[in-house]
Amino acid sequence: MALHYLHTVRRFGRDARLAFATGALLWFSVFGIYSVLFNLYILRLGFGPEFVGLANAGGLLSGALFSLPAGELGRRWGSRRAMIAGLILAVVGHGLVPLAEILPPALQPAWVLLSYFAGCLGALAVYMVNVTPYLMGVTAPHQHNHAFSLLSAIPTAAAFLGALAGGLLPTAFAAVMQTTDESSGPYGLSLLLAALLLLPAVVAAARAGDPVVDARPDPARPAGAPSAAPWAVMGTLAAILFVRACGQGTTRVFFNVYMDDGLGSPTALIGTLSAISQLVAIPAALAVPFLAGRWGNARTYVATVLGMSVSLLPLALWPRWEAAALGYLGSTVFFAIASPVITVFSQSLVPPRWRPTMEGTVMMSVNLGRASMAFAGGHIVSAAGYGPLFLLGAAFMAAGALLFWLYFRHPRGELARSPEAAR
After folding, report:
1. What angle do the packed helices 2-10 and 144-177 form, to 10 degrees?
2. What is the DSSP string of 84-130?
3. Is there a contact between 409 and 81 (Cβ–Cβ < 8 Å)?
């Protein structure tokens, strides 16, 4: 089995490898360094959990609002060109965020919100929506589970290194600036460096080739009939994933805030825990082809989302950093499996020409769910504390797993032409 895995991986072409490179660079900078330090930077500017939630909600909302247009952009321009545009916008938006500290305090909130919104629009909407159909197009059907397990594992390894760097950079910049890591300056420079590290990703995407367009007719429609978008299955899946994403938004947005504001943990510990969770998630992501081959994509997804739900209970019930670390570790590991599994499952539900639209619909619902919890989470924390927030997140994820199982537990009409999704 391991030899078959290695044989499949070796057969990936140059374009797939360049797609992996763009993902690795994005995860190192944005989902590694930036994810550790962005919320802490906001706290160092003097804002509280409510503004942290608002800023994160704004960034996620950009993905929710523009994911469908990003899919249409990919259909018209091609997924590779759309990826390049998204990465350029991510560099500009994320690079502008740390300039907030040189502005008057009255202008800082709007600057942070708008620039972070633009950066997330590029990364979460335009790039993320189009890298999925791109990779589907440059790999063969029997390689899809392997390709997306690597698209999860390689960037996860990069995020591990980025999280480690994120935990150390403020202290290093503080020493150079002759200040402490309680001031905003070292965090701002760290965020600026993270944005600039995205530039090689733009180069990698520009050097890749366009995928071969699958011109085969859709077997689910009569010859000569118009190829209508399969909105029924896309809308149903989007609604189900929205519920799960509401639950995931609690840890995605508030874990480092909880560690810093709720438990008083040092930045180095937060970065180290984030890095360890990413490191342990790598073998989990690489196990996707074996798990999906044994259980099928649908059952594997349900099991891992339930695992994410259970993982939030230590965060909700035991206010210690050890419990927070255990819960965050479990949530990250299970998500490393769930993400590539649901990607292959959803992309296999529709004909190739509708894959950008499917991914745009999925990303819209996921980002809208995370944004909703990010916005509400800051108010929940202020009113009731962090424990009820994480408990609510666990309930949402359990509900998301249940709804998915109820809808997809039996082969449905939309699965009839897709053996890959129904396995």
Report:
1. 80
2. HHHHHHHHHHHHHGGGGGGS-TTTHHHHHHHHHHHHHIIIIIIIHHH
3. no
Amino acid identity of residue 184, one-letter, is S
Helices first, then strands: H and E counts in the chain? 18, 0
Q: Ramachandran region of residue 226, left (φ > 0), alpha (ψ -120 to 50) or beta?
A: beta
Query: What tens digit of pLDDT does each residue of 92-114 get?
Result: 999 999 999 888 988 999 999 99
CA dist., res. 2 & res. 119, Å (int)? 39
Cβ(274)–Cβ(163) below 8 Å: yes
Unique residue bearing structure tokens 């990003």: 70
CA pseudo-torsion sign 213, 218, 222, 225:
negative
pTM as predicted: 0.72
Percent of the chain with pLDDT over 70: 90
Three-state DSSP class for 58?
Answer: helix
Q: Give yes or no for a contact between 75 and 126, defined as CB atoms under 8 angstroms apart.
A: no
Q: How confident is the model at residue 83 (pLDDT cuts 50, 70, 90)?
A: very high
